[in-house]
Automatic annotation (TrEMBL):
Stated family: Belongs to the SEC10 family.
Keywords: Coiled coil, Exocytosis, Transport
Top-rank taxon, per record: Eukaryota
Organism: Sesamum angolense
Coiled coil: none
Region: Disordered, residue numbers: 1-22, 56-82
Domain Exocyst complex component Sec10-like alpha-helical bundle: 218-815
UniProt protein name: Exocyst complex component SEC10b
Amino acid sequence: MKETKGGTRTERFSKSPSADSGPLVLDIDDFKGDFSFDALFGNLVNELLPSYLEEDTDTIDGPGSSDAMANGHLRTPSDSGKLAQGLSSPLFPEVDALLSLFKNSCKQLTDLRKQIDGKLYDLKKEVAAQDSKHRKTLAELEKGVDGLFESFARLDSRISSVGQTAAKIGDHLQSADAQRETASQTIDLIKYLMEFNSSPGDLMELSPLFSDDSRVAEAASIAQKLRSFAEDDIGRQGITSSVVGNATASRGLEVAVANLQEYCNELENRLLARFDAASQKRELSTMAECAKILSQFNRGTSAMQHYVGLRPMFDLEVMNADARLVLGDPGSQPSPSNVARGLSSLYKEITDTVRKEAATITAVFPFPNDVMSILVQRVLEDRVPKLLEKLLVKPPLLNPPPMEEGGLILYLRMLAVAYEKTQDLAKDLSGVGCGDLDVEDIYIEYEQASLRQLYKSKMEELRAEIQQSSESTGTIGRSKGASISSSQQQISVTVVTEFVRWNEEAISRATLFSSQPATLAANVRAVFTCLLDQVSLYITEGLERARDSLTEAASLRERFVLGTSVSRRVAAAAASAAEAAAAAGESSFRSFMVAVQRCGSSVAIVQQYFANSISRLLLPVDGAHAASCEEMASAMSSAEGAAYKGLQQCIETVMAEVERLLSAEQKATDYRSPDDGIAPDHRPTNACTRVVAYLSRVLESAFTALEGLNKQAFLTELGNRLHKVLLNHWQKFTFNPSGGLRLKRDITEYGEFVRSFNAPTVDEKFELLGITANVFIVAPESLSTLFEGTPSIRKDAQRFIQLRDDYKSAKLAAKLSSLWTSSS
């Protein structure tokens, strides 16, 4: 909308002076700014629809001030009166005026759009022209910039060329100056060389330079250059003379070389004297000046060695004090712990001294690392070896010192302590210029000899303890004495553990002394083989001693086997002796089982030690681990052989006692009770009860001692032997039906006992034996039916049938002959 001069707002459009018929005038400015279509429309229709404004006013007053029409328009009270007049006038008479107004507005809007489109087109043409002009300007600028860059490149190339030329000129000038300087020095050197080559041994006519103490450094440098040149010239002349002959050889510089050598020696001695004087006064600046000059003579080696040789730490009194500190008082036996403390203290003192010397050497010498190398080398090749020679006196292997004096183990322990402490010293000194310590590994023979000496000493100690114990117990019976001796010589797991402890100590030394994996593996194998030999020999001898007691018990049993025609008194004495022999056998059985158990524990200790400590040291070397496993199996084979033979003897001992009990306790009436009308006894026979009780008692130690496949094999063999002994034993008796029931009860008792063996084959044999025992119970005519379900018992059943008390009276041989024929 527009504003008048008075400030009142007018509509956004205007009409001609005739408000009713004048055309509507729209302006582009009406659509600028915050344009609102509702406001435009309201301004268009306000004059034609005055009620539109009234409705707006009523709406502002409130919703309750007018009535609502059905079509949503508001009406005033006057409208209600007009409604009463009827519907003869039009409902919306302003529609024509509005249509005319809207058409006029649309036409003006169309004209305005065309004007706008025209202006937009003109603007686009103008923008395109300006853009083209701008692009042309940019292209011209780019060409100008490219030309500028090319100018800069030419300028840079020119500057570089000028710089290179200047550098070349500078190099030429520097080279010319150097040549001039060299020529000047050469002239001086030739003059000095002529002075030295004038006459042999004449050093009095030399230039003042060579006698001026303030110019010693310059003189030394010139003398070294002249000496080098003269020696090279003599070398070249020697080659020329050998080619063209001595006829053309001219006088050389031999005199100059001799005079220069004499002068250098004199100058070097003079500087060393000055160096010593400054060293005593601790004048480090003077020492450094002399050392720097002396470095021109063979890199100052003479000064370095001279300085190291005069150190107080290499004095004889100091080295004697080292021995007293480590070894203690003369005549006393040094212990490894005391030696370790003494070496630690001494080596700490040496390290501190070397560190102090390092500070002086660094401040004085131009090549301090070379001096430190000489100093440390002197420590490790002079002071330390002289001490170790007194400390480590190698004992002879053929006649080693006795264990009372420490034995070989004392030497090895001292060697390990000295090596470890010296190695620590070398590591400490390596931080101040020393390399690694190289110690020759020659100790393994001593290690093996020491282990053999320890084993021998331990066996002598055990034998002495057994002898002392035997003497303290006094005189005892032969069988009892054998039992006691066997128990005192039993295998001891504690002793085997001590063997392993010795070996662990030896392995620790092998690890300390052996730096290379191959050397370590070889030494570890050698040491571990000693353990295998010791354990194998010890447990094998222990098992053999336990076998000896079994053999002695067997000889006791055989000694009291008597014939049938003896007196009652002799028989009673023999029975008493047999009881004693049986007790000895049972005791020896238990002793052997204890030996087997301890043997197994000892082998397990060795195997565990191998797995935990040895195998990891052998694995880095191909084949070493497998070879040690084979050696371990081979070493234990002798013990396994002794254990196998002893277990066979144990079975023989048990079966011999079972046979004795059966022979002594089994009565003929046990299986052929009289038919006196008394109810049959369904209890096991006394012989069966005694045998089962004996087996239960004696095999208790076997169940504890044996395990795994060894236990299974032993009990299976024992069960088979028991089955065979019982079969042979029952062949001595005849059976009636009640006796057959008694036998079946015995077989059941035996079967229940052997079931604890967990041996299926043995259980099957006793089950078949129980079935076979039915041949004594059934009637003769029913015997053939026993073999229909179990034909495997026919052989044993044929033998059992002959033991029936009615075998002959019932003529069973004839009746069953057809059965035996068909079975064969």
